[in-house]
């Protein structure tokens, strides 16, 4: 694996390989006072974020540090991006400084693909073979989020194949939804998207999943429900349904959560809008695996860096 730009870069065996590596890294670090492996000593990992992030940026930084890589964070504000430097020039500059891996988040769908094309084409000039990881591009994809969600589902449900997973809410603006549908279907899950018709993307009927509008009708048959963040920043001021209608129709209230089977897992990629997307009592209940998702994010991102920079383990 040279880059991780989309979950479609991974077939079932490759995705399972990353998840297995994440499990092994988790076990290797369990109970250790000093969480440091020598695996990526001498490697340089740069996060380059053009959009805000807490979970993804910090967990990639921790993942690199726990494997002894040198990690550097670049954000649009405070870098020469604010002086008008292009994504291409910025990425080639970082590659020329010796970045073994650039992890990029950008508001434009396709930005990570473009960046990978530039660093591949110009590697003779920059002198570095730089891997690119897509940490979220516009409304397109967020592959490491889907991998950490799959890791959490494997932990909680014992496996993914044959499980029924509901993904609920603002699918239109969600890169998390697209990556999860593709990855969960590749791993054999039965995926259903539940969303208001106004928050579904064109062409969703070609995705490998079913689409439904009535959440209450779906909940009793789900093994897991993934609530999506409403991406207000991509809606230019207004959206339909309103926040109140959204909460009534698609929010996971305590009454709604009671319709789920006892074993069902509740996921949310974060950051959550409590009260609209999910009731605080549900987010903090034993069924919720939201903080487990965050912890798994570190191990999964360690595994991704390992596969990219050290090669797939035996
Ligand atoms: N889930 C997710 O991508 O969170 P951040 O925006 O905090 O990275």
Description:
The chain has 2 domains: 7-141 and 294-309, Aspartate/ornithine carbamoyltransferase (Rossmann fold, 3-Layer(aba) Sandwich); 143-290, Rossmann fold, CATH 3.40.50.1370. Helix content is 39%, strand content 14%. It has helices spanning 12-29, 55-66, 87-96, 111-121, 123-126, 143-157, 175-186, 215-218, 243-250, 254-257, 280-283, 290-309, and strands at 44-49, 70-75, 101-106, 131-137, 164-168, 190-194, 210-212, 224-227, 265-267. Helix 1 packs across helix 6 (143-157) and helix 6 packs across helix 7. The two termini are 15 Å apart. The mean pLDDT is 94. Bound molecules: phosphoric acid mono(formamide)ester. The site of phosphoric acid mono(formamide)ester (CP) has 9 residues, from helix 2. Phosphoric acid mono(formamide)ester binds at residues 53-56, 136, 145, 269-271. Keywords: Pyrimidine biosynthesis, Transferase.
Chart the SSEs and their pairings.
Elements: H1 12-29, E1 44-49, H2 55-66, E2 70-75, H3 87-96, E3 101-106, H4 111-121, H5 123-126, E4 131-137, H6 143-157, E5 164-168, H7 175-186, E6 190-194, E7 210-212, H8 215-218, E8 224-227, H9 243-250, H10 254-257, E9 265-267, H11 280-283, H12 290-309
Parallel strand pairs: 1-2, 1-3, 3-4, 5-6, 5-8, 6-7, 8-9
The protein binds phosphoric acid mono(formamide)ester.
The site of phosphoric acid mono(formamide)ester has 9 residues, from helix 2.
């Amino acid at each position: 694996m040279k880059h991780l730009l989309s979950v479609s870069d991974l077939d079932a065996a490759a995705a399972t390989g990353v998840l297995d590596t994440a499990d092994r890294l988790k076990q290797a670090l369990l109970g250790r006072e000093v969480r440091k492996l020598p695996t990526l000593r001498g490697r340089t990992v740069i996060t380059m974020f053009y959009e805000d992030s807490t979970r993804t940026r910090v967990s990639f930084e921790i993942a690199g540090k726990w494997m002894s890589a040198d990690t550097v964070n670049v954000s649009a504000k405070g870098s020469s991006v604010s002086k008008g430097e292009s994504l291409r020039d910025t990425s080639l500059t970082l590659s020329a400084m010796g970045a073994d891996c650039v992890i990029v988040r950008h508001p434009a769908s396709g930005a990570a693909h473009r960046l990978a094309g530039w660093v591949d084409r110009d590697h003779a000039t920059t002198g570095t073979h730089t891997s690119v990881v897509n940490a979220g591009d516009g409304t397109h994809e967020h592959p490491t989020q889907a991998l950490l969600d799959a890791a959490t589902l494997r932990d909680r449900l014992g496996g993914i194949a044959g499980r029924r997973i509901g993904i609920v809410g603002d699918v239109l603006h969600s890169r998390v939804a697209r990556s999860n549908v593709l990855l969960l279907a590749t791993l054999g899950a039965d995926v259903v998207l539940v969303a208001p018709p106004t928050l579904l993307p064109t062409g969703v009927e070609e995705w490998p999943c079913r689409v439904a509008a009535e959440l209450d009708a779906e909940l009793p048959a789900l093994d897991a429900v993934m609530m999506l963040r409403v991406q207000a920043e991509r809606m230019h001021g207004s959206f339909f349904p309103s926040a109140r209608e959204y909460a009534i129709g698609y929010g996971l209230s305590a009454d709604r959560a009671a319709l789920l089977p006892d074993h069902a897992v509740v996921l949310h990629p974060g950051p959550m809008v409590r009260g609209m997307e999910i009731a605080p009592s549900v987010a903090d209940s034993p069924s919720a695996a939201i903080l487990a998702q965050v912890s798994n994010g570190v191990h999964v991102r360690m595994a991704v860096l390992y596969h990219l920079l050290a090669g797939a383990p035996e």
